Amino acid sequence: MAKVLLTEDEDSLRLMTRTVLELDGHQVFAYANGQLALDAFEEVNPDVVVSDISMPLLDGFGLLDAVRRLHTGSVVPFLFLTARSEHEDVRFARSLGVDDYLFKPYDAEELLEAVRTRLERRRVIELFESRQAHIQTIIMLAKLVEARDEYTGDHVQRVQFLAMELGLALGWTPEAMVILEYGSLLHDIGKIAIPEAILNKPGKLTPEEFAIMRTHTIVGEKILRDISHLRRAVPYVRHHHERWDGTGYPDGLAGEDIPLEGRLMAIVDFFDALASERSYHHNMPVEQVLSLIRENAGKHFDPIMADVFISLQEAKRLGQA
Asked: Would the pTM count as exceeding 0.90?
């Protein structure tokens, strides 16, 4: 749900537009002129502004200009909804920084699509703008684990590369790809709490040791859930050992109940674990690992994601990707 600041001087149109937006789940703050909307702007702190142009006291152009001069309004999506379609008006609106320009009479779905698109773009921009600060935190956390486990440091980097490739092949949105970038780096963060004797054991783990190792998914979630800008990586951390048939951990989720993030991470984590050298086994040939993924599609792995991953890796080996 988004907060929409709506300005429209005609009562019937204001009511109709408010109703359309509220039925789509938005919280609407409606005003009859630009001055009232501007006075309420900082208190409302809207996610998007939808405004008429021709209004008393302060018209839409004046509202747009004033909003763009506010520190809190410089990146807020601003849409004009107006009957004025002259080229000069459109050109002037764009010079002030309008994001979209819809003409009356408008189609309800056209308005909703414009609002959804602008909200999505704002979320992506905010993610990218804060990405660098996030990455510094993420690298610091990843290095804490790497300092205790030489294998994990290289593993998370390889898994991140594989995960980004698969996310792109699946057509994930730019917003999802930003979260995937740091979620894949942090998927093993919970191993920071695993005793080094277990973490770096050269042989197979005992049942008791494996039970302790399994807790890294829950510990990892606890580490991230209170860090606001990393919280969205939690599904990668908690669910990358779930299995399609429900035999995984920590929650025993099955099929589509497993978050998409966990399903993707399960495939790339498994691939790298077997295709790379570990302290307790030699790496397998890539063809053999892909064969195992194919055999376990619909059992261990999401069958659609597994098929995309196999096709992607086979294409790379043939020099087609």
From this structure: no
